[in-house]
Specification:
274 residues; alpha/beta; Rossmann fold; 31% helix
C-alpha cells in the first residue's frame, strides 16, 4: 500500500454508525503509533544525498526545534480528552482509538498507559494491558460517558512525568481530542524540554472539523478523522446535504494571520495548509 511522507497509509472511508468501521477508519487508518513506529527506527543511518544539508546545519526558520534521533519503538502514553464536547461520534471514535492502541501495544510488546482527562481535577491514569487490572480499566472507560470541561495542563504534566521514568524514556505521546482547548506557555515549555532531552514525539488524532490553535501548537503531527460525523447518530449522518468538511486546515486557509509562529510550522513552505 502507498504511504505518505509520514508513513501513514491513507484513511479508508467507513459506513455510518458501525463500530467496527469506526475502529477501521477512525483508529486504524488514521492511527499514527501503529504505523509510524513499525520498523521505522533502525540502527542504520540513512544515506545523505547531495541535496540534503549536513546534520549540523541550523534548522530552517519556523521549523520545530531539533530532536535527538530515536531508533527503538517505545511505550505509548495515550492522553484521551473526555470533555463534554467529545460526546457522541467523537466519543465513539476515541474509544475505538483506545482499543487499537492497546492492540498495537500488545502486538508489539510495548507498554501502554491511558491518561483520561476532562476539567480541572478530572483526570484518571491507568495502565492498559490484557491482565485483569488492565482489562478492568478498559471496561471502566468503555462504560463511562464523556462530560465536563478541558484542562490540558494536568495530563501533560502526568505524561511528561511518566516519560522521565526508567523504561518510559522513549515513549510516544498520543493525544485524542477535538482540539477544543488552549495551551498555556508553561505547558508548551514543558513539552519542548522533553522533546529536546528525551526525543519525545507528540502526535494528535483530531476528531473534529478543524485544527485549533491549541492542537497546532501542541502536536508534531496531526491525523484527521475526516468523516467522524458518520459514526454518530445515523439520522444526522444520513441527512440530506450531509457532507464532511473539505479540509481540517480552515484556520490556516482563511485566517493565516491568526496563527502563532509555533502553529504556523504546520503550513507548507508556500504558505498553504498541509
Amino acid at each position: 500500500r502507498k504511504r505518505n511522507a509520514t508513513g501513514v497509509p491513507p484513511a479508508r472511508r467507513a459506513s455510518a454508525g458501525h463500530s467496527r468501521n469506526a475502529t477501521s477508519s477512525g483508529a486504524h487508518a488514521a492511527f499514527p503509533i501503529a504505523h509510524t513506529q513499525s520498523g521505522q527506527r533502525t540502527s542504520r543511518r540513512p544515506s545523505r544525498s547531495a541535496s540534503q544539508p549536513p546534520s549540523h546545519a541550523p534548522p530552517a526558520a519556523g521549523s520545530a526545534p531539533p530532536r535527538p534521533e530515536r531508533r527503538e519503538r517505545g511505550p505509548i502514553v495515550l492522553c484521551l480528552d473526555t470533555s463534554g464536547s467529545m460526546r457522541g461520534a467523537p466519543e465513539t471514535i476515541a474509544k475505538a482509538v483506545v482499543l487499537e492502541t492497546l492492540a498495537t501495544a500488545q502486538r508489539e510488546r510495548r507498554g501502554c498507559v491511558l491518561i483520561a482527562f476532562g476539567g480541572e481535577g478530572e483526570i484518571v491514569e491507568r495502565a492498559l494491558g490484557t491482565d485483569a487490572g488492565g482489562l478492568d480499566a478498559l471496561l471502566d472507560l468503555m462504560g463511562q460517558g464523556f462530560d465536563g470541561g478541558t484542562d490540558l495542563q494536568s495530563p501533560v504534566e502526568r505524561a511528561v512525568a511518566r516519560v522521565h521514568e526508567a523504561g518510559w524514556r522513549s515513549a510516544d505521546m498520543l493525544l485524542v481530542s477535538d482540539g477544543e482547548f488552549g495551551c498555556m506557555p508553561s505547558t508548551l515549555e514543558l513539552l519542548d524540554a522533553a522533546r529536546e532531552r528525551l526525543g519525545l514525539r507528540v502526535q494528535g488524532v483530531l476528531v473534529g472539523d478543524r485544527e485549533t490553535m491549541g492542537l497546532l501548537e501542541l502536536c508534531d503531527d496531526i491525523f484527521w478523522v475526516r468523516d467522524w460525523r458518520r459514526h454518530g447518530d445515523e439520522a444526522d449522518a444520513a441527512a440530506p446535504g450531509f457532507s464532511p468538511v473539505h479540509s481540517k486546515s480552515l484556520t490556516a486557509m482563511y485566517f493565516p494571520g491568526a496563527l502563532s509562529p509555533r502553529a504556523a510550522r504546520h503550513l507548507r513552505p508556500d504558505g498553504g495548509a498541509r
